[in-house]
Amino acid sequence: MKKIALLSTAFLFSISLLYAQPANIIEVSTNHINYLFTGTPGATLYQNYLGTSLKKESYGNLKDATEAYVGAGMKDVFEPAVRVVHADGNPSLDLRFVKVQTQKTNSNLTETIIYLKDPVYLTEVNLHFKSFYNEDVITTWTEIINKEKSNISLSHYASSMLHFNADKYFLTQFHGDWAREMDMLESELTSGIKIIDSKLGSRANMYQSPVFFLANNRQATETEGEVIAGTLAWTGNFQFLFEIDRTNRLRVLTGINPFASTFSLKPGETFSTPEFIFTYSNSGKGQASRNLQKWARKYAVLDGEESRMTLLNNWEATHVKFDEEKLVELFDGAKQLGVDLFLLDDGWFGNKYPRNDDKTGLGDWQEDRKKLPNGISYLVKEATAKGIKFGIWLEPEMVSPKSELYEKHPDWVLKLPNREEAYQRNQLILDLINPKVQDFVFDLVDKMMIKNPDLAYIKWDNNRFMTNTYSPYLKKDQSRLYIDYTLGFYKIMQRIRAKYPHLPIMLCAGGGGRTDYGALKYFTSFWPSDNTDPVERVFIQWGYSNFFPTNTISSHVTSMGKQSLKFRTDVAMMGKLGYDIKVNGMTPDELSFSRSAVQNYKQLSPIIWFGDLYRLISPYEQDRAVLMYVDSTKNKAVLFSYNLYLRKKQIFEKVKLQGLYPQKEYLIKETNLMPGSLAENPENGKLYTGEYLMNIGLNVSPAKLKPVTSTVLEIISE
Ligand code: GLA
């Protein structure tokens, strides 16, 4: 320092410029995020920074340097990103920087590849990054390449390794069970390891969803705090591992769960991990969600920027007990409601073992001749004649032990040799790793579509997870079973999509057991939960809204729960609206309300699906939930307010809105009212400036508060 002090100012300036952006800094950046590394050929690759974007002049000040992607077996004693055992038994990987390649694919997308290799062993690792400038989203994955002459063994293979250096770390996880999906829980991380994972194989996120928020220094709210929102694009076993080391630094490893999946990489073989998707916001979780939703609609969900059909599903109305006549009658219900499509659920198939309960028939995808003597094509024709489209339920990855498929192909099933078969919902999983099984699944969809080209929708279910698992196709080496099952599923979906690129398919897994961006490439929406009680749904849909766009979150009006039809409808309208209800059980008022609700939804859905979501009051914090969607012009918004279980004389304060133009005037209009009911919201018909609404707020509740009631408000600027 003393020496520098003696130098002339001009020289100092040039030194600081030199330090300002060291030549070996690698930038993975978006509009508001910098993810910075230092790569010097032959040396370790370091992560220097991940957070809000900095001026380049500040790069030189970055003192933090953590090995970016740690190979096991060398100096680092905490959790590694990758672990390799070489043919000679050497269990170490020393990754050194080779080069970086950056390509601007278009004005929004930059792709970066950082090449690493071991100086002694011919194992190479490429770190891939895609940065989406406008949406502030980065996706990252890793390739591990064996250039050695023999097999190497691979037991850890993270998609990403992120490092943080903060005072405190708060993790929000989303967990649950069947009928209790996406429960939100925030806790402070402490020294050591916290893992969120799945070992369930199929229906993989039944207990834990592959999504999280991580807030640094202090808990993030919807509008404040530094937060990362992350998710893995993988429809199988995943693992998020959070480790705080002895210096209070945090490393976050994401990827496929290495559980029971140590496998050999052959000479010349490359293993590619799935993508980890994340965004960073320094203004809370709300912005992080909006970033992910915008990105997902554009880049991750099939036809994510397209509209969706409203539908009537027969599941909760009939279960498997129906016949042709009953179904055709139900079409009238769909017509009366004014929805676009009728969806025939489980129970339409099987002849030797007809599907009259959940014990038989899975795998025998022929129409039940007793229930449907004229087949699916008749139903499609009848529906079309009534002006509605027709869709069908399939569970193609499964087989009932009582089925012709099982009798013909007992070796197509995942099950342990020399042990009793283990059932869940009386069913077994097909061995999707076997190419013949892949053909079978593709063919069943293909044949169905060839026979019924007007079939307009599929609900693709998956009602069990893997236990007692063994693939007869893989024989002695079962090490890639979990990985190859998911890859087998993707291969099938790729074939279906190559031939039927835009057919809407809803992903379902015994409720919300499969909700991830690995699958949403091929699916247009998902089924969040079999729990359709609307109070429960407020929480469940709230959970999903943190990571997924609204047009993917199927939300149906059903008879579950004792709440008013208005409340049930208003809750379903915050997502992708559908019905699963006996329409002929509705009173004339209820039917007329539902008809206008469907019309109303058609008019409001562009805002609900494609607008910006602002979660205003969380049901986790108050006995109500309030959220709003604002369209891109900020001229129109829709607000949903749900009062849950209330105390006597409960008081709710005004709610400050978000996302409006401060200077514009907005008209408040209550909508979705029961026939003959007058608006109950005291603000109905009033005009306010955006500034007022955002700083002082709006009374979103009716004058007389009642439990389990709801209000829908349109906020319109002329
Ligand atoms: C699962 C789904 C339901 C319904 C049934 C049919 O439970 O989540 O929506 O399709 O299967 O058996």
Structure write-up:
The chain is α+β, with helices and mostly antiparallel strands. Among the domains are: 3-10 and 19-300, Distorted Sandwich (Beta-galactosidase, Chain A, domain 5); 613-717, Immunoglobulin-like, CATH 2.60.40.1180. 22% of the residues lie in helices and 30% in strands. The protein contains 14 helices and 37 strands. The strands form eight sheets. Strands 6, 7, 8, 9, 12, 13, 15, 16, 20 and 21 form a ten-stranded antiparallel sheet that branches. Helix 8 runs parallel beside helix 9 and helix 12 runs parallel beside helix 13. Mean pLDDT is 96; it is low at 1-20. The chain binds alpha-D-galactopyranose. Alpha-D-galactopyranose binds at residues 315, 345-346, 393, 461, 463, 508, 510-511, 527, 530.
- Rough outline: globular
Kindly report how far apart the N and C termini lie. Answer: 63 Å
Main sheet attributes: strand count, strand direction, barrel closure: 10 strands, antiparallel
Structural class: alpha+beta
Number of helices: 14
Q: What gyration radius follows from the Cα positions, in whole Å?
A: 27 Å
CATH topology of one domain: Beta-galactosidase, Chain A, domain 5
The second-level CATH architecture of one domain is Distorted Sandwich
Give start-end ranges of low-pLDDT stretches: 1-20
CATH superfamily of one domain: alpha-galactosidase from lactobacil brevis
The helix content is 10-25%
Would you state the CATH class of one domain? Mainly Beta
Task: Give a count of the beta strands, DSSP E runs of length 2 or more.
Answer: 37
